[in-house]
Write a structure and sequence with these properties.
Number of domains: 2
Structural class: alpha/beta
Distance between the termini: 56 Å
Oligomer: single chain
Number of helices: 20
Shape: elongated
Number of strands: 10
CATH architecture of the largest domain: Up-down Bundle
Order of helices and strands: HHHHHHHHHHEEEHEEHEHHHHEHEEEHHH
């Protein structure tokens, strides 16, 4: 499944009460902040409505009645309450911001912690862009709903409730006329928002695809340029952006139309109030200040209803985001510690594959009835065609995956009885494409054992053959390696990763195609470091360059998930079987390459 196809998986955006409750539960650990901001927003909203009623009293009892003492008292009260409201505004904005940051932190920490526990199989089938979107934008959306969304709902409910209360106090007949408008506005808002949600859902879906496209194109820029795929990629990207533009255009058009419709309904309500209020004023049933207050309360009620429709739309997005976030948090690791798993203190001993079957996809077996015994301290070289199962064997040794059938034993004990930390903390791995972390060379080597001293770091760098190139750099061990080690060559990264593995003092050592991308001189340095590291350690070496494994204690030829041959380099050459054919074919190819290079440099010598 490609990254774009993965992003097309849609979670339901229908109202899901269980998910909403789980979203709101994110605020439970921070309930004092939640209560504080709810109290503050309720106070501010209640005062908003009271200010309108107070304005009515100022007009009727102070200005029109000409009562200066009453007017002074009312204006003073208004001024004092403005100060109280200002403090409330500061309080709810501050508390909402703090609560939002705490919820974001909690969600991201939960996801990051859980990602550390998930098995390799999860990352095999889940694109990096999808995970990053969950940790960033989806976590933000959930936090926004719990804080600002809840704030808007509280504000709306308080505004509507207090407005109705004061209107009923002023003139209940006129209040009933206004209340008739509310269901109309709610219906119109619901219809518009339903269609707007559909369009924004399309925008979000396409945006996920565009994020994936950016991610793939940035990571694969060298391949794209090498294959001349720029125009085709630009065409595909143009189709995505065009589709997003059309969906965004429709959403913008509906959003633009929604506001005028709300204004028309509000104007009709205001007109009704002015007309009927005028009739009531003629008979003394309503004052000028009362009519003015009613008009203000209509605005108070109309905008909160629109806000609630907006919050409902955001809640649909937040539900979709929450389902994706919770799906990550709820993902169950396929490889985890069994009940009673122990750390024996060492995993030294024979490693036995006892009739192991393994597959990544059920109908595509990788290892079938695989049996192999690796003696303690033995160096085993795994060779064979690509896809034969070599990397799978070492992945199983590291317990990144577990056998589907059969047993793997360390020192005679089923390794599922041991804790993952007991196994993985005692295995050193150097990969074909080593990963270095942003920071210095020193920090990357120390990653193998954080408490290591600078002297120990330099010692292992010498053993791995990395010290000589490090000291030639401007800052030596404090040279920055760049993102992913991009400021170093492939060979230099290999040497640093080898030093990191040496520093970790592993009991089992694995080299997975570690010299396939380096020159002969660097390969010799790496080989020398390997020899130091593999002393008295059980080691697995995967290499396409067969010249690098001649000194292995045993060479195991893997084909189609089974052992085709096993023996030393000399024994296998004498058998003239699978290994012999692989070795002679590669030797012939290397000789032809050497001849071609010589021919290009000395054509006259070849002609002679």
């Amino acid at each position: 499944m490609s990254q774009y196809e993965f992003e097309e998986e849609e979670f339901t955006t229908q109202f899901n009460g269980q998910t909403v409750l789980r979203i709101l539960a994110q605020a439970r650990p921070h309930w004092p902040w939640l209560v504080g901001f709810l109290v503050a927003i309720s106070l501010v909203s209640g005062l908003d409505s009271y200010f309108t009623y107070l304005s009515k009293q100022i007009v009727d009892l102070g200005i029109i009645a000409g009562d200066r003492e009453t007017l002074t008292q009312l204006v003073t009260r208004y001024g004092l309450l403005i100060g109280v409201q200002s403090a409330g505004v500061f309080g709810f904005i501050y508390l909402t911001g703090v609560l939002g940051q705490r919820i974001r932190y909690d969600l991201r920490k939960k996801m990051f912690d859980h990602l550390q526990a998930l098995s390799f199989s999860y990352f095999d089938r889940t694109p990096v862009g999808w995970i990053m979107s969950r940790v960033t934008s989806d976590a933000n959306r959930i936090a926004e709903l719990v804080t600002w969304g809840l704030l808007d709902v509280t504000w709306a409910v308080m505004n509507i409730g207090t407005a109705i209360y004061f209107m009923m106090n002023i003139n209940w007949r006129l209040a009933l006329i206004v209340l008739v408008m509310i269901p109309v506005l709610v219906t119109v808002a619901s219809v518009f928002k339903k269609h707007i949600i559909v369009q924004y859902r399309k925008v979000r879906k396409i945006n996920s695809k565009i994020t994936g496209a950016y991610n793939e194109n940035i990571q694969g820029v060298r391949v794209i340029k090498a294959l001349g795929r720029e125009e085709e990629n630009l065409r595909e990207f143009g189709e995505l952006t065009g589709e997003m533009y059309r969906a965004g255009y429709r959403a913008a058009w509906l959003s633009a139309l929604f506001l005028p419709v709300v204004q028309i309904i509000s104007a009709f309500a205001v007109g009704s109030v002015v007309w009927y209020g005028g009739l009531q004023a003629e008979i003394g049933g309503l004052t000028i200040g009362g009519i003015q207050a009613f008009i203000s309360y209509i605005t108070f009620m109309m905008w909160p209803i629109q806000d609630m429709a907006r919050v409902y739309a955001e809640m649909q997005h937040a539900i979709a985001s929450a389902e994706r976030v919770f799906s990550l948090i709820d993902a169950v690791p396929e490889v985890a510690d069994r009940p009673g798993a122990v750390d024996p203190g060492t995993i030294r001993g024979d490693i036995v594959f006892d009739h192991v079957d393994f597959w990544y996809e059920e109908d595509k077996p990788v290892l079938q009835d695989f049996c192999l015994t690796v003696r303690r301290g033995e160096t085993i070289a795994l060779v064979g065609p690509t896809g034969g199962g070599k990397s799978t064997i070492v992945n199983l040794v590291c317990r990144f995956y577990e056998p589907k059938q059969g047993v793997i034993r360390f020192g005679g004990r089923d390794y599922t009885e041991l804790s993952l930390h007991a196994i993985q903390s005692r295995i050193g791995v150097v990969l074909q494409t080593p990963h270095l972390f942003s920071g210095t060379i020193r920090e990357n080597i120390r990653y193998g054992r954080l408490e290591a001293s600078d002297e120990e770091i330099e010692e292992v760098a010498r053993l791995a053959g990395a010290h000589d190139f490090i000291v030639t750099l401007d800052k030596g061990y404090d040279e920055d390696v760049g993102e992913g080690g991009g400021l170093l060559s492939v060979g230099q990264k290999q040497l640093v990763s080898l030093a990191r593995a040496v520093l970790a003092r592993p009991e089992i050592f694995i080299m997975d195609e570690a010299t396939s991308s380096v020159d002969t001189l660097t390969e010799a340095l790496i080989q020398r470091g390997m020899d130091e590291l593999m002393k008295d350690r059980t080691s697995f070496v995967i290499a396409h360059r067969l010249s690098t494994i001649k000194r292995a204690d045993r060479i195991v030829v893997i084909e189609d998930g089974r052992i085709a041959e096993t023996g030393t380099h000399a024994e296998l050459l004498r058998q003239e079987g699978h290994y012999y054919r692989l070795y002679t074919k590669q030797f012939r190819h290397e000789r032809e390459q050497t001849y071609d290079v010589f021919k290009s440099l000395h054509p006259e010598g070849v002609a002679a």
